[in-house]
Amino acid sequence: MTGPAQLRAALAAEWLKFRRARPVVFTSVFLVLGVPVMTVASVLSLDGANPLLAVKAEGVVGAGGWEGFFAGAATISAVGGLLGFGVVAGWVFGREFTDGTIGSLFLAAVSRTATAAAKLLLILAWSGAVAVALTFTLVAAGLLTGTAGNPGDPGIPALAAKFLLITAATALLALPCAWAATLGRGYLASIGAVIVIVVLAQLAAMVGVGGWFPFSAPGLWASQRGAGTDATTAVQVLLSLPLGALAAGLTLRSWHRLTLS
Amino acid sequence: MEEELHDAAGPAVGAARLQCAGASKRFGGEPVLERVSLEVRGGEIHALVGLNGAGKTTLMRLFLGMLRPDGGSVLVAGREPSRLSSGERAGVGYLLEHPLAYPELTVLQNLTLAGRLAGLPPERARAAALELIGEFALTKWEHTQGRRLSLGNKQRLGLAAALTASPGTILLDEPTNALDPAGVMIVRRMLLDRAHTRGAAVLVSSHHLDEVARVADRISVLNAGRIIGSLPPDAMDLERRFFDMIYADSGIGQ
């Protein structure tokens, strides 16, 4: 089989598994519906009976309106997305070790590298689709519930685009979970990795170096009101690109060199 | 299956397809295999018999490139396993420990997937899957998900998955340990068909002299990581000879 033919066969095999995988279905629903629901709940709690919750919600969605609505959603998505995308990236790679099916992929005509590349491509495609779907459901939730303010706000497209970029960057930042699952020979290792990443991102933000810590940058950008950004923030958020590429490269290398002791 | 053996691995039928010479492997300083040499030729069933922990699975892993030997050479179709081309890899079918049985996929889907990974185009992968479902008496479970299969049926599925591309070289590690007598007979028939009718080279391991080991053309006995001798497959008292050999090598009185 030629290289492209191996990749095509690997994509067909991986797609067969991916579209039936419960973790993928649950995570898709959690992100596409869960984030809008949590955002709407945060806005509603601003005027709720519980003053403690109202203060907390104000920290997330500010004074409200579309700007606050998107900022709140992006803040939730920057953490929730890291967890969700990380779980799927780790599961897609780690399940082969946990289920013991990695042995069957070892000396197949389709190389392990082609299989790993197919997994990465599917994860990226799924992440992109989830990010787009989430952006649409978020806008729909804001319009239908009236919690985001003026439905004719001309700033909505720019705010939605910023939210989409934050979610996409978060998906790239979750790719190290694929490598962690490979090194740890199972998806539990990737769950550990995603927890460490989230904790480190919070710590970096707290000590004030978060902008240059790639895992914190999308969350910090999300907390900045408005759709615009300065050059420094843009570079900081774009660090997710080389980091995602590095994680993908390391994962491919590990699958190419894999041994099973 | 009526199609020809997938013998892209190169050598003609009758030539050595699996060879190891002085192969050694250590785990954490402990020797697991010591200077093991054997070969399996096309058209031949070679049984590797040894107690648990003798090194049978480790040797299989060396042949499949899952481990690299610390010493000696391990060759598949005359080449190191990690250097086999895609076509050459398609010529090797195997079942080692865990079967290819994804829990979310049905038996038919699992086998079709195995065929695609073995390099078959979609239609041929499906046709091969259906044929193997018949051969391994899995028709009743064709649309059953892997997670709902019994251990024995999972093993039948794993065996079928190893054969989707009609490999010319077959490695099976304890292929009958979860099978009922009917399943053992299917494997026995399958081995004879693949090796003696179609010319495949078969290496099959077992921890005892079961029905599968008894159809072998050659039986090598592995103990404590070493080949300690061979047994004549047609001998009357194979079981006793096997234990005599093991006890003598281990220095245990009977």
Task: Give a quick rundown of the structure.
The complex is a heterodimer of chains A (261) and B (254). Chain A has 11 helices and no strands.
How would you summarize the topology of this molecule?
The complex is a heterodimer of chains A (261) and B (254).
Chain A: H1 3-18, H2 22-44, H3 51-61, H4 65-98, H5 112-145, H6 156-173, H7 176-183, H8 187-207, H9 217-223, H10 231-238, H11 240-256
Helix pairs in contact in A: 1-5, 2-4, 2-5, 3-4, 4-5, 4-6, 4-7, 4-8, 4-9, 5-6, 5-11, 6-9, 6-11, 7-8, 7-11
Chain B: E1 16-27, E2 30-41, E3 45-49, H1 56-63, E4 71-76, H2 86-90, E5 92-95, H3 107-117, H4 122-135, H5 151-162, E6 169-173, H6 181-197, E7 201-206, H7 211-214, E8 218-223, E9 226-231, H8 238-250
Parallel strand pairs in B: 3-7, 3-8, 5-6, 6-7
Antiparallel strand pairs in B: 1-2, 1-4, 8-9
Helix pairs in contact in B: 3-4, 3-5
- Name the helicity range of chain B: 25-40%
Overall pLDDT level of chain B: 89
Number of helices of chain B: 8
Quaternary structure type: heterodimer
The biggest sheet of chain A, with number of strands, parallel, antiparallel or mixed sense and barrel status, is:
none
Proportion in β-strands of chain A: under 5%
Structure description:
The complex is a heterodimer of chains A (261) and B (254). With 261 residues, chain A is an all-alpha fold. In chain A, 75% of the residues lie in helices and 0% in strands. Chain A has helices at 3-18, 22-44, 51-61, 65-98, 112-145, 156-173, 176-183, 187-207, 217-223, 231-238, 240-256. In chain A, α4 (65-98) runs antiparallel to α8. Chain A is elongated, with a radius of gyration of 19 Å. Chain B is globular and about 55 Å long. Chain B contains eight helices and nine strands. In chain B, α3 packs parallel to α5 (151-162). In chain B, 33% of the residues lie in helices and 24% in strands. The model of chain B is unreliable at 7-12 (pLDDT under 50). Classes of the chains: A mainly alpha (261), B alpha/beta (254). Chains A and B meet through α1 of A and α2 and α3 of B.
